[in-house]
Amino acid sequence: MAGYVRLVWLSAAVVFLGLGVGAVWWPNAQAIAAVSAQARSLYDQANQNDAEVRHAAQLRALAKRVADDVHSLSGLGSQSAVMATTLNLLNREGRMFSVDVRSIVPAPAASASPVPQAGALAGTTVQIDVRGHFRDILAFTSDLPRHNALIEIHDVSLIDRGDRSPAPVLGATIHATLFRYRDAGQRETQHAAGTF
């Protein structure tokens, strides 16, 4: 009889353990595994989002630095400031490279730049006439765009002055565009003043 009772208790314990494993432990273990997998996925996604936020912040900082540089290099949007900076640059570069800057005049109307939108670079096409030795003119032209005025050199036309010396003095016409930054406020001010 005692053996029968022991067998009943043993059977009951096995059934109880089986039900506990099947009904409680296994579903909870599956739920814990699913939660852990979701936590790992969210952690990876959070790391990726953090990297994208850092990258976006770097891009915004770079865009601001470029905009500030363009604004600074283009004479803060004032045509007179751009021209004064350019004349000072031409004078200094002419002395440095022994080139005589004869004139700087606006290009013909047909090649003038269209009216720019606010927040864009406004370009003024000009012709710069210089005289000097070939190598000096070449060095002068190459060095112009490297300074604190936004100048784009399009081409250089050389003119033979008939000098037959070993290092002849040549005339040259430099076709270039002077740029300045025009923001919305400056555009409205110029429009009101009629100075487009």
Describe the structure.
With 196 residues, this protein is α+β, with helices and mostly antiparallel strands. It folds into two domains: 1-73; 76-193, 2-Layer Sandwich (Alpha-Beta Plaits). The chain has helices at residues 2-73, 79-97, 134-143, 184-193, and strands at 100-106, 120-133, 151-160, 169-182. The chain has a four-stranded antiparallel beta sheet with strand order 1-2-4-3. β3 (151-160) and β4 form a beta hairpin. The longest helix is centred in the first third of the chain and has 72 residues, at 2-73.
Please indicate the percent range of residues in DSSP E strands (runs of 2 or more).
15-25%
> For the record, what CATH class of the largest domain applies?
Alpha Beta
Across the major sheet, the strand order is 1-2-4-3
User: How is the CATH topology of the largest domain named?
Assistant: Alpha-Beta Plaits
Main sheet? 4 strands, antiparallel
Helix content: 55-70%
Tally of DSSP helical segments: 4
Determine the CATH superfamily of the largest domain. Ribosomal protein S6/Translation elongation factor EF1B
